[in-house]
DNA sequence: CACTACATGCAACTGAGTTGCGTTAAGCTT
DNA sequence: AAGCTTAACGCAACTCAGTTGCATGTAGTG
């Protein structure tokens, strides 16, 4: 085991292949970019990073691969309250779903897990007899630091 | 009082004007379209309905008016899980926030209010010291009728 | 009633994402 | 290992939603 981290590289690739999807040089690059991203990336950002590894990679391939990952539930698509235009952001689907909070002043994105959130989704599935495949809870507002800052400026 | 309904026409117009915003012929038309809509409309749909009243109205005016309403918190912008392309939908901001559920099979949109939802937002504000201005909780999945239908076809 | 600042309409533009198609290459099959 | 088939790739052209610049029109003030 050469990867002692909690989230070992290659796990996304492994899940991808275990679904019988064809692995290509380009997909390998894109998956590793998505997997190792430390922040939320949009398609253009993913392309830029992928091209540092393989300059031949095309933006169309990035879009097609992201659609594939989305359809297979391997990544989630986020809007992040459209703080910067209409583009989408992507993240590996986590074990446990979380809420995204976007600060309208500083643009910071925060994530928040909550029992209440899990219970709410359970309630929807039971009370509405609705089978949830994907969910997105995004919040726009003002973060703690911007709230205190706004009293000084 | 000529309007005995729960949601009397003109209330949106009244809120709009009470904010000191300039009322024009076009805005009056657009606001009444938004206010009386029985379903979630996108900008093109709002334009189409507005043009039935006033054919001179331009799509740019619709976009500008929707942006204005959004900035003033008088309407909410929805993605409805991007079931049909990337366009946005609009609804009057309700007294009590609700969740949108979009069926991936039949396209139906359902709304759901929940105490748990209200409590969850309260928790976010308290635990994260985050002041919520706007929130959007959208769910994609399969509705009750499509779940039972899918066993037969 | 006149003035001014803001709203409108038009046309041109932007930016994200998609499609068609000829070429390339995964990953089976033997 | 070579050949085969089917899917993925790269490129260019396109679509679609929404935005911007600017000249003209008009709401609301005084």
Structural features, described:
The structure is a homodimer of 153-residue chains. In chain A, strand 4 (99-103) and strand 5 (109-112) form a beta hairpin. In chain A, 41% of the residues lie in helices and 20% in strands. The N and C termini of chain A lie far apart (53 Å). The longest helix of chain A has 13 residues, at 59-71. The first copy, chain A, has helices spanning 11-18, 25-36, 43-53, 59-71, 115-127, 144-149; strands spanning 41-42, 75-78, 89-92, 99-103, 109-112, 131-142. In chain A, helix 2 (25-36) packs across helix 3 and helix 3 crosses helix 4 (59-71). The model of chain A is unreliable at 1-6 (pLDDT under 50). The first copy, chain A, has a 3-stranded antiparallel β-sheet with strand order 1-3-2. Chain A has a 3-stranded mixed β-sheet with strand order 5-4-6. Chain A is α+β, with helices and mostly antiparallel strands and 153 residues long. Chain A is built from 6 helices and 6 strands, in the order ααβααββββαβα. At the A-B interface, strand 4, helix 5 and strand 6 of A face strand 4, helix 5 and strand 6 of B. Strand 6 of chain A pairs antiparallel with strand 6 (131-142) of chain B. Chain A binds a DNA duplex (30 and 30 nucleotides) through residues 22-27, 42-44, 56-61, 63-65, 85-88.
Which parts of chain A are unreliable, with pLDDT below 50 for 5 consecutive residues or more?
1-6
Structural class of chain A: alpha+beta
Please state the oligomeric state of the protein chains shown. Answer: homodimer
- Would you count the extended β strands of chain A for me? 6
Distance between the termini of chain A: 53 Å
Main sheet of chain A, how many strands, which sense, barrel? Answer: 3 strands, antiparallel
Give helix % range of chain A.
Answer: 40-55%
């Amino acid at each position: 085991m050469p990867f002692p981290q909690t989230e070992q590289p290659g796990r996304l690739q492994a899940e991808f292949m275990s679904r019988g999807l064809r692995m290509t040089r380009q997909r390998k690059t894109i998956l590793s970019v998505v997997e190792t991203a430390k922040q939320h990336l949009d398609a253009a950002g993913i392309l830029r990073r992928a091209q540092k590894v393989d300059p031949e990679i095309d933006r169309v391939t990035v879009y097609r691969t992201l659609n594939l990952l989305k359809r297979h539930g391997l990544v989630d698509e986020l809007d992040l309250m459209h703080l910067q235009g209409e583009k989408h952001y992507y993240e590996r689907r986590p074990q446990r779903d979380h809420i995204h909070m976007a600060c309208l002043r500083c643009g910071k994105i925060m994530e928040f897990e909550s029992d209440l959130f899990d219970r709410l989704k359970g309630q929807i599935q039971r009370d509405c007899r609705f089978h949830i495949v994907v969910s997105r809870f995004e919040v726009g507002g003002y973060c703690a630091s911007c709230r205190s800052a706004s009293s000084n400026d």
